[in-house]
Amino acid sequence: MKELLVEIKNLECRIGDQEILKGLNLKVNKGEVHAIMGPNGSGKSTLSSVLAGNDNYEVTNGSISYLGEDITEMNPEERSWKGMFLAFQYPIEIPGVSNINFLRTALNERNKYFGKDPIPAKDFLKMVAEKSALVGLDNKLKNRSVNEGFSGGEKKRNEIFQMAMLNPKLSILDETDSGLDIDALKTVANGVNKLKSSENATIVITHYQRLLDYIVPDFVHVLHEGQIIKTGDKNLALELEKKGYDWLKTGNSIN
Amino acid sequence: MALDILSKTPFPTRKDEKWKYTPLKKIKKLPFTNNSSFLIKDIKSLNLPSFDGLSIVLENGRVNPNLSKSLNIKGVDVSFLSTSKENDSFTNKLKTENYFSLLNSSYLSEGIIIKVESGVKVQENINIINIVSSNDSLVNTKLDLILSSHSSIHIRQYFLANSKTNNGFINHSNNISIQNNASLVLDKFQDLNNNFHISNDSIDQEESSKFISNTFSMSGLLTRNDIINNVNGENCHSELNGIFTPFKNDHIDNHTTINHHVPNCKSYENYKGIMKDNGVGVFNGKVIVHENAQKIEAFQQNNNILLDDESTIYSKPELEIYADDVKCSHGSTTGQFDQESIFYLRARGISLKKAKELMILGFINEVIQKSDSSDYIDFILARVLEN
């Protein structure tokens, strides 16, 4: 029996006056990989932002529960402490804050939340060495300011490096393949695969099927106008690659 | 002599371009007194970073011998105007003649004269702590500093108010001469709470000398820094860095002038302002590259963050160039916290409060890392975050 990790029920949300998600339902169990695909403007990135707790988006209806707890109103840092992780489509540059200091702060804030002592410097550095090797992150980048002056590919590697450091239960990868050449894509996907276990789950948000050759999904969902209009296995992604989305938009209803 | 000129000098008003953003009405109205009593019992009560080397504590304009720590440093001559027989120091020429430097000369409470002999590289820091601890106390102090050729020294000045002291006024002047191949680092820490502070600094640099000024202005009803850096010899390096944090009705004004009189010099200026709670910040930096001062590289930057809608910054970076073969730039930015950055940090499990702290640290990092002492860096960071 698989254990339910996250359940999104009838989620509706808006930004400003614009409704984006219009009754979205999704269940993700531990050990699963879900891909969410869909045309531009279908609400993919909104879904990832709302899951991570970005308060630019207002949830107007429905709920998100995570490990049995309703987190719809929970702030982003608490979601992170409880094991949620969003790999950003456009990772943010934070000038003047080193990657290392940023990550140590993040880990220690989580330790504080769980009433644990700060991580000893030696353990921390060992962990950094281990996890950065996983995604082939250049040594120099660890001491540089967060994402500042990183290339597109370096930023994405850095996201997966952070994911490895934080070891989340639910990872949401928002267009992690965009801006990556094929070698970088393989490295990043390889990193993600190594972090996969029966205890965690991954939601992969992507435009293209390409990434799914490397991170093989158990389920593929098609998002259109704020709802999931079709769910299938990995073959659905291949079909979408061939036929596009138009054949789904017309005539097919949910289920 | 100074008194004569002072009596003929009008009190500055906002019609004066140099005081456009800084009203002096409050200073004019106050019934300042001279009160040279000693009220501070223990230097530790000031929570300053630990001192090594020499420390001179001026309280209400007089040297407080109980708090000071004297130390003979070879090649460094320290004397005081109040006890010195030579009552004319080298700078009685009054280089910067404005109302407050004249007031300073006319009613001088105490002056410190430090002379570093040729070739002497001073390892110890020199700490000069200038405190006002009586209400309404007017304190006029100055430092005359001569670095002879090939010497170097690091001076740390603190301008402070005792807690609960109101409406005191420390009016200070720094008159500095840096001779050829000499090098000076001057850190200024200003934390005046409900008191006034004006500092008129005049720095003359001779050939191949180096001057680094780091000014950390934390609070004050009115804190005004006028720095005039005259670069008179070739191959000089000049750096003016600053962090200013006017919160809770503070008003902090940085006026700087770098005069490049000769060719082949470099100057860098970098000021960061953080404003909150009706705090007002002013940056007016001017770099003048005089005729024939070719091959000058001068860079000036002022960045500001407004933490709320009630705070204000006036930023005026200025370049005046009369030579034709120079590399100069200046710029100013003002913004608020970037919400996307805050969300990014929070999404990694960094609490909102800590995320804002990190953003502030990131913002001032470039300037604060100029300091060579981690104790001092931690001291400044803690003070900035305390607000």
Describe the protein in words.
Chain A has helices at 44-52, 76-81, 99-113, 121-135, 139-143, 152-166, 182-195, 234-243, 246-249, and strands at residues 4-15, 18-29, 33-37, 58-66, 69-70, 84-87, 94-98, 145-146, 170-174, 201-205, 219-224, 227-232. Chain A is an alpha/beta fold and 255 residues long. The longest helix of chain A has 15 residues, at 99-113. Chain A has a single domain (4-249), classed as P-loop containing nucleotide triphosphate hydrolases (Rossmann fold). Chain B has 387 residues and is of the alpha/beta class. Chain B is built from 6 helices and 19 strands. Helices cover 15% and strands 43% of the residues of chain B. In chain B, strand 1 (54-59) and strand 2 (62-63) form a beta hairpin. Chains A and B meet through helix 2, strand 7 and helix 3 of A and helix 4 and helix 5 of B.
In short:
Chain A has 255 residues and is α/β, with parallel strands linked by helices.
CATH architecture of chain A: 3-Layer(aba) Sandwich
- Spatial extent as radius of gyration of chain A: 18 Å
Shape by Cα distribution of chain B: globular
H/E topology pattern of chain A: EEEHEEHEEHHHEHEHEEEHH
List keywords for this structure.
heterodimer; A: 255 residues; Rossmann fold; six-stranded mixed sheet; 12 strands; 36% helix; globular; B: 387 residues; alpha/beta; ten-stranded mixed sheet; 19 strands; 15% helix; 43% strand
Secondary structure elements and their pairing?
The complex is a heterodimer of chains A (255) and B (387).
Chain A (H helix, E strand, L loop, with lengths): L3 E12 L2 E12 L3 E5 L6 H9 L5 E9 L2 E2 L5 H6 L2 E4 L6 E5 H15 L7 H15 L3 H5 L1 E2 L5 H15 L3 E5 L7 H14 L5 E5 L13 E6 L2 E6 L1 H10 L2 H4 L6
Parallel strand pairs in A: 3-10, 3-11, 6-9, 9-10
Antiparallel strand pairs in A: 1-2, 1-4, 4-5, 7-8, 11-12
Helix pairs in contact in A: 4-6, 6-7
Chain B lengths: L1 H7 L16 H5 L24 E6 L2 E2 L12 E5 L18 H8 L3 E7 L4 E12 L5 E10 L4 E10 L7 E10 L4 E9 L4 E10 L4 E10 L2 E10 L5 E8 L6 E10 L5 E10 L4 E10 L7 E10 L5 E10 L5 E9 L3 H9 L4 H17 L5 H13 L1
Parallel strand pairs in B: 1-5, 4-6, 5-7, 6-8, 7-9, 8-10, 9-11, 10-12, 11-13, 12-14, 13-15, 14-16, 15-17, 16-18, 17-19
Antiparallel strand pairs in B: 1-2, 3-4
Helix pairs in contact in B: 1-3, 4-5, 5-6
